[in-house]
Design goal:
Distance between the termini: 36 Å
Helix content: 25-40%
CATH class: Alpha Beta
CATH architecture: 3-Layer(aba) Sandwich
Number of helices: 8
Strand order of the largest sheet: 3-2-1-4-5-6-7
Oligomer: single chain
CATH superfamily: NAD(P)-binding Rossmann-like Domain
Order of helices and strands: EHEHEHEHEHEHHHE
């Protein structure tokens, strides 16, 4: 397991106050990394995530920064570099979404989603990657996209577009940063038990029941079930992965039509097998 060891490295995670960001930060700390934790000013949960990191014996540096203020991100990255030293891992996890039909999306709503999900990813990565090059760090840049960057979903035109753009942006950066030994990849989760989905104005219980029928594994992911893919991309085990994507979706994208519930029950053909439950 030593090739997954991140001892002596520092990782920055955006959107670290809750959900996937908290799970990612904790997993990176358990693998040995010190953490820079970034979330909105006044974000509830940031101090709790920092405490979870410190319980592993690692150092936590919490920062409050509104990522939508893209004109501030270069100076922010410089401040972090000066305070904590070289950064080895960047996890662009922060994201926002709004459930709106395409004709209801205002310019304000469109640009809010794009600023956080795409613009901030680019400008923060741009500056941190320059520091990685200058520090001669074989860095790991991981952007959390979504299955929605690969297939569309109604009511999320701006979110879908932002995640799809982040996918191609990451491939472009992977090409340009490869000569410096820096890898750039994406992690595309499916439905995860995180607060962002709970903020949508609909009957969540009814939606989840219907959506579970579309998921071959039959349930949403727990945040910690996405951390194995992250650690692969962040560690030496992922040193030859760049310009790639890991999808963690319970099989949704593999199943174009949820046909199994209309098929006869599974029957084991082994003569000695017990009947299926």
């Amino acid at each position: 397991m030593h090739r997954f060891d991140l001892t002596g490295r520092t990782a920055l995670v955006t959107g670290a106050a809750r959900g996937l960001g908290r799970a990612f930060a904790t997993a990176l700390a358990e693998a040995g990394a010190d953490l820079v934790l970034v979330d909105l000013p006044g974000a509830p949960g940031l101090a709790e995530t920092a405490d979870l990191v410190r319980r592993t014996g690692r150092t936590a540096h919490p920062y409050e920064q509104d990522l939508s203020r893209t004109d501030e991100l270069a100076a922010f990255a410089d401040e972090v570099r000066a305070a904590v030293g070289p950064l080895h891992v960047l996890v662009n996890n922060a994201g926002v979404a709004a459930l709106e039909r395409f004709n209801e999306i205002t310019p304000e709503s469109w640009f809010r989603v794009m600023r956080v999900n795409l613009d901030a990813v680019f400008f923060l990565t741009q500056r941190i990657a320059e520091h990685m090059v200058n520090d001669r760090v074989a860095g790991r840049i991981i952007t959390v996209t979504s299955k929605n960057g690969l297939v569309a979903e109604a009511g999320l035109a701006h979110y879908n577009a932002s995640k799809a753009a982040a996918e191609l942006l990451s491939q472009t950066l992977a090409i340009e940063l490869a000569p410096h030994g820096i890898t750039v990849n994406t992690l595309a989760p499916g439905m995860v038990e995180t607060p962002i989905d709970g903020e949508f104005p609909f009957d969540r219980d009814a939606f989840e029941a219907a959506y579970r029928e579309r998921i071959p594994l039959g349930r949403y992911a727990r945040p910690e079930e996405c951390t194995g893919a992250l650690l692969l991309l962040a560690s030496d085990e992922g040193s030859y992965l760049t310009g790639s994507r890991i999808v963690v979706d319970g099989g949704v994208l593999a199943d174009q039509m949820p046909r199994t519930r209309f098929m006869p029950p599974y029957r084991n053909t082994l003569p000695s097998a017990d009947p299926a439950p």
